[in-house]
């Protein structure tokens, strides 16, 4: 394929990927309730209705609580697992790490049904906490994959130098290792937060009477009059995603500059 063909393929691919997203703000500011051209007029009423919707605010609060909690827990557990897998040898290491990474490849509906059966079997009531457990299980393999790369690229001589200067293992880990792998930790937090925020299947099975943002959006798509409000909500979520992407890129470049590495290209 020549250069012109590759250029055309790239343009078509980007249009296919981003054109539907670009339509979100267009219809979010459209005064008509029907999602179709021609546009009726400019309005911000849908954003006002979105904020005045108590159920939506509750769903958003639940999703943010779940996403923040799951990202922190998944990253903390990921630090332990990545540290162990890159620095220590122990029996059945590959098998154990393989089992930890299994949720990354298992169908989420299987994981959701299994968790539902187990939680109900032991008498645990479905709530935001059960969704946090499920999302932590799903997000942890992604955090481990990111953090294992960060720990693997870390020069061990830096830790050994800290030991030679009298630091304990905990002191060397806190003062030397953690600052150097902080870009990986930030990346793990961001990817886990994003996965949890838009995850639907596990939230649908485990949330009980506590709706999350994806389950709320799914329930509202049956009502045509609610679609413009959903478009406004989607616009806000896209803007939030761009902000998170910018933050992740900032910390990535900062981490590369800190260790004196070469920037081979990132998100932006």
Automatic annotation (TrEMBL):
PROSITE patterns: ABC_TM1. Residues 60-248 form the ABC transmembrane type-1 domain. CDD domains: TM_PBP2. This is ABC transporter permease. Belongs to the binding-protein-dependent transport system permease family. CysTW subfamily. It comes from the Bacteria. InterPro entries: Bact_Polyamine_Transport (IPR051789), MetI-like (IPR000515), MetI-like_sf (IPR035906). It comes from Paracoccus stylophorae. Keywords: Cell membrane, Membrane, Transmembrane, Transmembrane helix, Transport. The lineage of its organism: Bacteria, Pseudomonadati, Pseudomonadota, Alphaproteobacteria, Rhodobacterales. It is found in: Cell membrane. It is a multi-pass membrane protein. The chain crosses the membrane at residues 12-39, 59-84, 96-122, 128-154, 175-206, 226-248.
